[in-house]
Structure to design on (221 residues):
């Protein structure tokens, strides 16, 4: 083996991370799939948003959220520091750009459990780094059954979620991948396969070009 090739083999294989944006109507499974994917992969972390709402008991700054004042949020938005932001229930939430992009530079991947509007904003601001996955329910009847079965919301809230589901599902064409969550384990396997494949994309493997140069410079006797 040549000294050049040996040198490249010994170097860390640096890669660029990417943004995995997972969306679905409420009850279709994006949150449970996202949490499991993060738990199973050390180089994947959930994004942390900035918010103007007060911290709840047990929440910590820079763990659950970046808790900021309305003035701080205004200043961050004015400086273009958010990949996306939105008003939600009288408070504002936004994804700070700097820590996310720093993670990508370090080869870490960032997962967003996010609605289609937020996913579109992020993809518009970071198209080359974004991979969008949309999760569909197998039927509207099954979506309704799941929402009622989990018993987390009142009947009026569930009815509102079901009314919004059609508008959310109509955005499926914006996504790179579309999956039907009919069987949870199979849907998880599909999401994991997408994640693994996207990690291997040529344009994310900064180490390959110098490695190939070393291969081509190697003299075979």
């Amino acid at each position: 083996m040549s000294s050049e090739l040996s040198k490249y083999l010994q170097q860390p294989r640096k890669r660029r991370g990417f943004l995995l944006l997972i969306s679905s109507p409420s009850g279709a499974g994006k949150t449970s799939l996202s949490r499991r994917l993060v738990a199973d992969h050390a180089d994947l972390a959930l994004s942390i948003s900035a918010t103007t709402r007060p911290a709840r008991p047990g929440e910590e700054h820079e763990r659950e959220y970046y808790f900021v004042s309305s003035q701080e949020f205004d200043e961050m938005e004015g400086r273009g520091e958010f990949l996306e932001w939105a008003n939600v229930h009288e408070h504002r939430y936004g994804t700070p750009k700097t820590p996310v992009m720093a993670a990508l530079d370090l080869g870490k991947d960032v997962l967003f459990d996010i609605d289609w509007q937020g996913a579109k904003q992020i993809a518009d601001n970071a198209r080359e780094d974004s991979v969008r996955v949309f999760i569909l329910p197998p039927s509207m009847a099954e979506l309704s059954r799941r929402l009622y079965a989990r018993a987390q919301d009142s009947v009026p809230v569930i009815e509102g979620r079901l009314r919004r589901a059609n508008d959310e599902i109509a955005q499926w064409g914006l996504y790179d991948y579309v999956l039907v969550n009919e069987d949870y384990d199979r849907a998880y396997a599909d999401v994991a396969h997408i994640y693994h494949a996207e990690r291997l994309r040529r344009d994310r493997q900064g180490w390959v070009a110098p490695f190939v140069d070393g291969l081509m410079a190697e003299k075979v006797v």
